[in-house]
Amino acid sequence: MELTEILARRRMVRAYRPDPVPHDAIERIVSTVRRAPSAGFSQGQRLLVVTEQPTRDAIGDILGDRQWVGEAPVLVVVGVREDDYHERYTKPDKLVEGREIEWPVPYWHFDAGAAAMLILLAAIDEGYAAGLFGVFAEAMEPFKELLHIPSDVAVTCCITIGKAADDSSWDALTSRLTQARRPVDDLVHWERWD
């Protein structure tokens, strides 16, 4: 599939058919994390794939009114281990005047977002729909406890994957019907900001 076709099909899906996703397709989708950008090649991204129905249902319960989460045949938790970045940037080839750099932004979050986008696009390339959601602060502890996610791994987002079902009732609640896409000229500047 051409990238332009993948981008045209990319949207956040909130309704899924129960059809399982073959294990080899899931492996191809999540293996894209190896091609994601990684500051200093720190490789701090961590994924957790959840396919078992009772666990998906428990996640839906933890998140409250997000039952659609449990309906997706595949959930991919995208996490990041910040310590991998600090460990990498204390190696001799990354030290600046004998010290770790001062991070202008937390690149571990940037890298996790890039990995998430690759997963979303790879799911479409495999013929599946995908959506992304966050775990709100109040649910984070039970969420991580349920999935045995180590304390040094931050959950940045979760991705749902499966065959799309009719989501016309959800469409009425989504931003895409109330918010227009901004024109490119509002988002992209050339040479100087003004």
Report a brief summary of the structure.
This protein is an alpha+beta fold and 194 residues long. Helix content is 41%, strand content 14%.
Walk me through the topology.
Elements lengths: L2 H7 L13 H8 L14 E6 L2 H10 L4 H5 L2 E7 L1 H7 L18 H19 L3 E5 L3 H11 L6 E9 L5 H4 L3 H4 L5 H4 L7
Antiparallel strand pairs: 1-2, 2-4, 3-4
Helix pairs in contact: 2-6, 3-7
Task: Tell me what the structure shows.
This protein is of the alpha+beta class and 194 residues long. The chain has a single domain (3-166), classed as NADH Oxidase (3-Layer(aba) Sandwich), CATH 3.40.109. The protein is built from 10 helices and 4 strands. The protein has a 4-stranded antiparallel beta sheet. The longest helix is centred in the middle third of the chain and has 19 residues, at 107-125. The mean pLDDT is 90.
